[in-house]
Design goal:
six-stranded mixed beta sheet; 12 helices; 6 strands; Butyryl-CoA Dehydrogenase, subunit A, domain 3
């Protein structure tokens, strides 16, 4: 391959590689680092035996992500308050024309699912991501991970059972989520507690991620009354030079709150049966940096 061809091939597959790495790590910066390392190995290595570039690159990226995840877990860092994945801007566009396929990809990158994936072992997580999110054959996954196919099937079954038992049953209809998000924003901004309570499920849950670096609840709030009053109280305190815009993160509509033109918080809702079942608030400034570059 010429230098230009090497670059073109890698860039063609970069979105998939970043998607694999992010689902493995839940951190945009770490995922980008892993993809960059994959590029260095691709561009500087021996490609004479590579017959299928996409498979080769997915294999390299997955292995690098497993190593990175093991390093993160080995450090055993203590996180202040609830942990949520770093918001990941998703706009599948024309790359995923099939509605069913889009729904699968969106679900696999949702905040709720990624939180559950944190409890899997690195190998289980890799198998789950490659199989459930991207649909790769067990034989390919086994070859990429240097495992026997029966062992990979066992890992996949264990991971799938774990995720199914723990992930909430939320709808992924973007139109309904967008509508409820707009009504949620209007009620909170107007200080309309009664209107907000009409949108919230009785057992709604609010999870705030600040990492101890911003104001947010250090424990999850549960019940419509507690969540509603917290949101109205937070809205009344106000933020300097406040503005809000809609963005698509983690496969669904979200609110990006800006203070002085800089990202201050991301709000995303999970919806089922026409009501808001969960409210996620990400305020850790380290997790909002990538959103500063949004046009």
């Amino acid at each position: 391959m010429t230098t230009d061809t090497v670059t073109e091939v890698f860039e063609e597959h970069r979105p998939v590689l970043l998607g694999v790495a992010y689902r493995m790590l839940g951190r945009v910066a770490d995922a980008e680092d892993v993809v960059q390392e994959a590029w260095l190995r691709w561009s500087g290595g021996d490609r004479s035996e590579v017959r299928e570039p996409r498979g080769y690159l997915v294999r390299v990226t997955t292995r690098l992500a497993i190593d990175r995840l093991r390093q993160i877990k080995a450090r055993g860092e203590t996180y202040v308050g609830p942990w949520l994945p770093e918001p990941y801007v998703t706009d599948f566009g024309d790359r995923v024309p099939d509605t069913a396929e889009r729904a699968v990809l969106a679900d696999s990158v949702s905040l709720a699912v990624l939180v559950v994936l944190e409890s899997l072992s690195p190998l289980e997580r890799a198998v789950f991501v490659l199989r459930e999110a991207f649909g790769y054959p067990y034989a390919d996954i086994a070859a990429w991970l240097d495992r026997g196919e029966p062992a990979v099937r066992q890992l996949a079954g264990r991971a799938r059972k774990h995720v199914e038992e723990r992930r909430p049953r939320y709808e992924v209809d973007p139109a309904q989520r967008r509508d409820l998000t707009e009504r949620f924003l209007a009620a909170a901004a107007d200080g309309d507690l009664e209107g907000l309570l009409e949108l919230l499920a009785p057992d709604v849950r609010l999870v705030g991620d600040s990492g101890g670096k911003a104001r947010a609840p250090l424990r999850a709030l549960e019940s419509a009354d507690k969540v509603g009053r917290f949101l109205i109280g937070a809205a009344r305190k106000g933020v300097r030079d406040f503005s809000v815009r809609f963005v698509e993160v983690n496969g669904g509509p979200a609110l990006l709150a800006l203070s002085g033109g800089k990202p201050d918080a991301v709000f995303q809702l999970d919806v089922a049966d026409g009501r808001i079942q969960a409210v996620y608030i990400i305020r850790n400034p380290d997790k909002l940096r990538s959103l500063a570059a949004l046009p």
